[in-house]
Design goal:
Number of helices: 14
Structural class: alpha/beta
Helix content: 25-40%
Largest sheet: 8 strands, mixed
CATH topology: Rossmann fold
Number of domains: 1
Radius of gyration: 18 Å
CATH class: Alpha Beta
Strand content: 15-25%
Number of strands: 10
């Protein structure tokens, strides 16, 4: 890891390889470390691969104010990362929240995006009104994790009480009920399934995550969710906008997130969709769970961009 200083924040970045640039953007609650199996293979295939800890995470800056985590700031960090390395464009691969950021990057800064590969979270067009208002109406009698994350200090304390247990539960026991379930007074962690570590996650991996979040806490990552309505208010010009860049969607067929964010219909808003791939038997943490297959899908998109984008 090395530090790249931008205008307002510093990002810790894993940097491997040489060639056309590819940027890997992690989600919640992960780190650049989540790409540990994918990044070396992409680099060996002839690409310069940059994987930052996003703002609020790991070795990167963690601003205290929630307003620092808007979509303009998050996409601005990725543009700044390109500028710092002298690149005009890159292909962006994002997982979970990272997928949302790279989709929005393709709308806000289309000249900087040579392609998008989104993992787990499909493209969603701009809502007609404030998202939290819509969810409050539609899910009035339900627990919804994004709504649970809104109250400052509540989920922060819940997740930070025992970072090792938090990461064990989140990475090993994510269920649909943890995202969207009965409103029975339980918090987020109490809805996750207590289980053994999955085969793709070692105790060393778990310790790496736990140590990072013990140091930073979870307020920065949770502030991404707290900016959702502000993001909507700041982007009226994106109403009806779709992504023109070459793109690809990839998810685990058993990903609980697909029950909350269905991928069907996203093709209506994507001008150059080059594939929609569901890996049988795979869950949400797909780049860690099935790295070889994920890497092959990403390479398929990269190799389809001819001539390459440098």
């Amino acid at each position: 890891m090395r530090t790249v200083r931008l205008d307002c924040v510093a990002l810790a970045v894993r940097d491997e390889g040489s060639g056309p640039p590819v940027v890997l953007v992690h989600g919640f609650p992960e780190l650049a470390y989540s790409w540990r199996h994918v990044q070396p293979t992409l680099a060996a295939a002839g690409f310069r691969v940059l994987a930052p800890d996003m703002r609020g995470y790991g070795g990167s800056s963690c601003p205290e104010e929630p307003a620092a985590y808007g979509i303009e700031e998050l996409t601005g960090d990725l543009v700044g990362l390109l500028d710092a390395h002298g690149y005009q464009r890159a292909v962006f691969v994002g997982h979970d929240w990272g997928a949302t950021v790279v989709w929005q990057l393709a709308l806000l800064h289309p000249d900087r995006v040579a392609g998008v590969c989104a993992l787990s979270v499909p493209f969603a067009p701009r809502a007609r009104r404030l998202p939290l208002e819509i969810w409050r109406e539609r899910l009035a009698d339900r627990f919804f994790y994004i709504r649970h994350f809104q109250d400052e200090g509540v989920a922060d304390a819940e997740l930070a009480k025992d970072p090792e247990r938090t990461m064990r539960l989140v990475l090993g026991g994510l269920t649909v009920e943890a995202l969207l379930g009965p409103d029975d007074g339980r918090g987020y962690l109490d809805r996750l399934r207590e289980t053994h570590l999955p085969s793709w996650l070692t105790e060393t991996d778990l310790a790496h995550y736990a140590e990072a979040f013990a140091r930073t806490g979870f307020s920065g990552p949770l502030n991404w969710y707290r900016a959702i309505d502000r993001n909507w208010a700041a982007t009226p010009h994106l109403a009806g906008a779709g992504v023109a860049a070459p793109c690809l969607f990839l998810a685990g067929a058993d990903d609980p997130a697909l029950a909350v964010m269905p991928h069907e219909g996203q093709e209506r808003h994507l001008g150059d969709l080059r594939g929609s791939v569901l890996l049988p038997g795979a869950g949400h943490w797909i780049q860690q769970e099935r790295p070889a297959e994920v890497t092959e899908v990403i390479l398929g998109l990269l190799r389809s961009l001819d001539p390459w984008w440098t």
